[in-house]
Design goal:
426 residues, alpha/beta, Purple Acid Phosphatase, chain A, domain 2, 3 domains, six-stranded mixed β-sheet, two-stranded parallel sheet, 17 helices, extended
């Protein structure tokens, strides 16, 4: 359902093509096919193939034209998705697919872009092995942005995950088909380097006063550097003679998608509709789940019990955003979304797999529907019974970062936030 909402929004934004990554296969290939048909999206993967025929299940590439430039866009799926591929489907290694595919495409395309869900280490290998690829757009699991990097003649670009930023690149594509290869400047810089080497060699010769320099390590090192520099200048001049026109260039920026920015009404309507549908589905799931008592939840007391001995701290807690953590989800129709709910309630532990396995969110009483005292200080039932012998833990940075991860809170600085949330003494 979430995937359908995303696909619908992409279609509304006139998205030309979408590369298939491992996380896209969580619902199965048939589900992806249905979404593609429903939304008329172009999903790309050159190596997600039929085992019997070896042919790609989805389009391996599309060709489009922007101005006078013919552009080919390819998709490649990382092999981490192998565990999600069932039936008669398989994921072929990139080096078994891309070379032959590019051999045909490169004759017609002025520019080739690869949508890759492989990690950066593999994308660098692809760039080094297949120089006809001009740009690799990497899908990212990491929340941080990374400025474009050039590997030989391929540009690698990546925007952080979770849709908090928009990566925007303006490209000036020229007949040279090469990024930023300003050979005149490179030749000039290398010539300056050679001049400095020649000056150092000359100084050594003057100081030697006729002595044999053959055994002088510095002299031999400089001679070697001199030869290397001369060869580099010769290579640059050859490359300069082969090139056509001016080099290609680009500018890149990351636009933070802050909540105060104007919203597109059409896209916002799709988001709201999808959120409500997911919330309703999760509500039905929770309603029909088998509710029994939980020994893990019995280790919690709830904030009211804490209040009996710590009224000052409890009153301070009521002034913080933690008090309203569950309500913020309810206001956004997400209070039944288990992915979000985990960090908006009080639990004995925040291991998502364990919480789901024990169905703790199903059994949660209203008194624990907030980020309460025990979220930070741990279960308090034993402390309530034996306050002098059983001590509560002190909340530290590791405790907070269990939920305030970069994916969910990229502005979290413990020292700053701790000042605002730390309970008073006494």
């Amino acid at each position: 359902m979430n995937a359908r909402g995303i696909a619908k929004a992409m279609k509304a934004m006139d998205c030309r093509a979408v590369g298939i990554a491992s996380q896209d296969l969580a619902g199965g290939i048939d589900a992806l096919k249905n979404i593609q048909a429903e939304q008329q999206l172009t999903l790309l993967s050159a190596n997600l193939a039929d085992k019997t025929t070896g042919q790609p299940i989805f389009s391996p590439f599309i060709e489009t034209r922007i101005g006078s430039t013919n552009i080919a866009v390819l998709g490649i799926t990382d092999e981490q998705a192998l565990g999600l591929v069932t039936g008669n489907a398989s994921i072929l290694p990139w080096h078994d697919v891309l070379p032959d595919l590019l051999a045909g495409i490169s004759k017609e395309a002025d520019m080739i872009i690869l949508l890759s869900s492989y990690p950066e280490t593999i994308n660098k290998k692809i760039a080094q092995a297949l120089p006809t690829i001009d740009m690799i757009l990497e899908s990212s699991h990491a929340p941080s942005n990374q400025p474009p990097r050039q590997v030989d003649n391929t540009l690698l670009a990546k925007t952080g995950s979770r849709g908090k930023y928009l990566g925007m690149m303006r490209i000036n594509w020229t007949e040279s088909g090469h990024w930023g290869q300003n050979f005149s400047e490179k030749i000039r810089a290398e010539q300056n380097h050679l001049d400095r080497i020649n000056w150092q060699i000359g100084r050594l010769k003057r100081r030697s006063r006729g002595k044999n320099l053959a055994e002088n390590k510095n002299y031999n090192k400089l001679l070697s550097a001199q030869q290397q520099s001369k060869q580099k200048i010769a290579d640059l001049k050859k490359a300069n003679a082969r090139k056509k026109g001016h080099p290609c260039s680009y500018s890149n920026q990351f636009v933070a998608l802050k909540s105060f920015l104007p919203k597109d009404n059409k896209i916002q309507a799709i988001i709201n509709q999808t959120t409500r549908a997911i919330n309703t589905l999760n509500q039905e799931h929770l309603r029909h789940s088998h509710k029994t008592s939980s020994s893990a939840l019995s280790t919690l007391t709830g904030g009211e019990k804490c209040r009996q001995c710590h009224p000052r701290q409890y009153n301070f807690w009521q002034s913080t955003d933690h008090t309203h953590a569950w309500q913020t989800l309810a206001g956004g129709n997400a209070q039944f979304n288990e992915d979000c709910l985990l960090c908006h309630v009080t639990l004995p532990y925040y291991d998502s797999a364990r919480v789901r396995a024990e169905q703790l969110l199903v059994r949660l009483p209203d008194s624990l529907k907030n980020v309460g005292c025990e979220s930070c200080h741990g279960p308090g039932a034993d402390h309530a019974r034996q306050p002098k012998t059983v001590q509560m833990r002190r909340a530290d940075e590791k405790t907070c970062k269990g939920c305030h991860t970069p994916e969910h809170d990229d502005n979290f600085i413990f020292s700053d936030k701790n000042k605002k949330i730390r309970c008073p003494k006494g």
